[in-house]
Amino acid sequence: MPSRSAAGVRTGVRVVVAGDRGTGKSSLISAAASDAFPEYVPAVLPPTRLPSDFYPDGVPVTIVDTSSSMESRVKLIDELKRADAVVLTYACDQPMTLSRLSSFWLPELRKLEIKAPVIVVGCKLDLRDERQPMNLEQVMAPIMQQFREIETCIECSSATLIQVPDVFYYAQKAVLHPTAPLFDQEKQTLKPRCIRALKRIFMLCDHDMDGALSDAELNEFQVKCFNAPLQPAEIVGVKRVVQERIRGGFGYNDELKLRDDILPVPTKHAPDQTVELTNEAIDFLRGIFRLYDSDNDGSLQPSEFDDIFVTAPESPWTVDPYVDAAERTPQGNLTINGFLSEWALMTTLDPSYCLANLICIGYGGDPTSALRVTRRRSVDRKKKQTGKNVFHCFVFGPKKSGKSALLNSFIGRPFSSNYTPTNDVRYVANAVEQIGGSQKTLILQEIPEDGVKKLLSNKECLAACDVAVFLYDSSDEYSWKRSRELLLDVARRGEESGYGVPCLLIAAKDDLDPFPMSLQNSARVTQQLGMEAPIPVGVKLRDSKSVFSRIVSAAEHPHLSIPETEKGKKRKRYRRLVNSSLMFVSVGAAVAVVGLAAYRAYAARKNT
Fold first, then answer.
1. What mean pLDDT comes out for the span 225-229?
2. pLDDT tens-digit profile of 156-166?
3. Which of 46, 324, 377, 379 shows a CA-CA span of 20 to 30 A to 272?
4. Residue 478 has what DSSP assignment?
5. How many helices and strands in the chain, by DSSP H and E?
6. CA-CA distance, 57 to 77, in Å (whole number)?
7. Whether 341 contacts 328, CB under 8 Å
């Protein structure tokens, strides 16, 4: 890859020159750098640097000469793999070297999996036999058809300096302004991301949203692109084709995604902080939902939903973890709660991706006003309250305990008696109405039983978790014992890391016959750990709204329902003992100092 700054801007281009021996590689490089034909050049030149002011883009070019000898093959391969662009040379007076491009060099680049653009250069143009004229386009067209990686073909002469600077200009241009992300050479069409980007640019310029650019809007686009207005007579020509793209590409990188430097994601200063959408961003999203809900039925059909992201690189919610993560109607339409919950989930998991999509669909406010960082959860615990609007809940439990059924119930999916094990982490999100009319967004993250050990191996794994629930099949004694083990493992990790979380036990399948001593065992454990009694839930989870309300309530009280193991209780008692001892020592020391001062004052008066 080319050199880049921290903001992702290229700071240099590395061009490797390769080809058969005697095709003029070294002379080409020397002539380009010195603007003169060299009388003598070594077999292989050291890396040559063209300064940043050599070409209009202001990016320096480093040119690497190579040898085609077998002894230098390893070095040649290494240089090719590091290249941003490759210049392949042939000699205009040696037709065999041209044939070698398609018989050896281009297949070799493919074999080595070199992805850099290729510039084919014919050197020694001044030595071509004039009695054997050649049409470059006719000769190269079939080669370029076979090898699409060729960006440009050009012939030059180092002796007469004809088109020598152009060679490395085209090489630099192929790197700085690549066509591969924009155009599919095989299909001869614009690529989907390019089409989406162009649509977004069009929408940004179409201020009156009438589906067409007026002369004023087109002129504004011209000013933004080229910093100069159009004369009325020029607008007609500009309407036919936009000949150059805006400097900076409207914020796009070479993959047609928004660059990181225009995505001001707020910084989290501690692991137990999270990122949420601001009210301004949520109001914008509500407006977007209403705008695209063309039939005003309170939900988005798939076609309406796709239209929202037509200006984004891709529709973000068609792949995991966002696909099937939100509430939909029986017809498969996305409700307003589902729409906003998907955004909340994306903000929690990938704030940068969320902000990029907000901008792509038309968020016109200051990007810094779209997201906010929440207060540390450890501070919330001390203050016994939280200002968060989105809560992240880990769902633990053994296999067949009902975790997936709980998640499906949360987003309105019907109960299924068919058991399908969950092997990967799964997310769902929805809004939860609380007493008093407030609404919070709850994210449920299902943790597969086999993945708990790996999760807990990370010391900060519970930092972003606001509440954890532990399911067990109340009709199965093993399920209960395994859920209790998971609860104790999580409690111990919370005590060791300082990121203890409120925990709830859920007795699933409560309408089946419980195993003996089920109620007594679970009640005893929760009492020992300082937790609420288990929440009973039936097999089909018909009335599960109260369960989710209690989960949110536990998250809203970050200082309660945090399980304490015996080891944790002993550690807390020890800390209290140490603190009280220190207090006693400090008070005792103060008394001693005061007493000493009084004695000295008394002794002084007595001596007087």
1. 76
2. 999 999 999 99
3. 324
4. H
5. 20, 19
6. 29
7. no
Give CA–CA dist 6/13, Å, rounded.
16
Angle among Cα 505, 510, 512 to the nearest 5 degrees reads: 145
Peptide bond before residue 321 is cis, with ω within 30 degrees of 0:
yes
Average pLDDT over residues 391-397: 96
- 269 and 195 Cβ atoms separated by less than 8 Å: no
Q: What percent of the chain has pLDDT over 70?
A: 86
Partnered with residue 120 across adjacent β-strands are 88, 153
Nearest residue to 254 (alpha-carbon basis) of 1, 608, 441, 499: 1
In this structure, the number of other CB atoms found within 10 A of the CB of residue 123 comes to 29
Quick check: 515 and 476 in contact, CB under 8 A? yes
Gap between the Cα atoms of 532 and 546, Å rounded? 15
Pairing of strands 3-4, 10-19: antiparallel
pTM of the model as a whole: 0.62
Specify the DSSP class assigned to residue 35. S
Q: How far apart are CA 140 and CA 526, in angstroms?
A: 79
**For residue 484, what are the CA distances in angstroms to 395, 424, 430, 471, 525?**
13, 22, 28, 9, 8
CA angle 204, 206, 208 (to 5 degrees): 125
The angle at the Cα of 32, spanning 26 to 34, to the nearest 5 degrees, equals 100
Tokens standing for residue 303: 């076609």
Instruction: Report yes or no: 395 and 445 within 8 Å, Cβ to Cβ.
Output: yes
As to burial, measured by CB atoms within 10 angstroms (0-12 exposed, 13-18 middle, 19+ buried), residue 314 is middle
Which stretches does DSSP call E strand in 283-438?
Answer: 299-300, 334-335, 371-373, 390-396, 426-433
Write out the two tokens for 194: 């390019």
